[in-house]
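Researcher: Please translate sequence to structure tokens.
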Amino acid sequence: MTMTASWISKKPDRCGGDACIRETRIPVWVLVNYRRLGASDADVLRAYPGLTPADLEAAWEYAAASLAEIDSDIRENEEGAAGFVE
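Model: Translation complete:
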């Protein structure tokens, strides 16, 4: 079993089925989006003190292997948030 397989979980009743870190409600796409916006791993760990460097390593590994899914999740959530701003 790879680190990603043991660290990342997807359940239909949690965060809309998005890939999350362990049994948390922290979606991988959120962490990837922070990174794309210029946050370092240290910044992400400060924002989510319950996460560990190993959690981030698993998130980055999962994101690299599932780029289309992560991009889609980010896009869907940005579009949803835009509806609240208008």
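Researcher: Any highlights?
Model: The longest strand covers residues 8-9.
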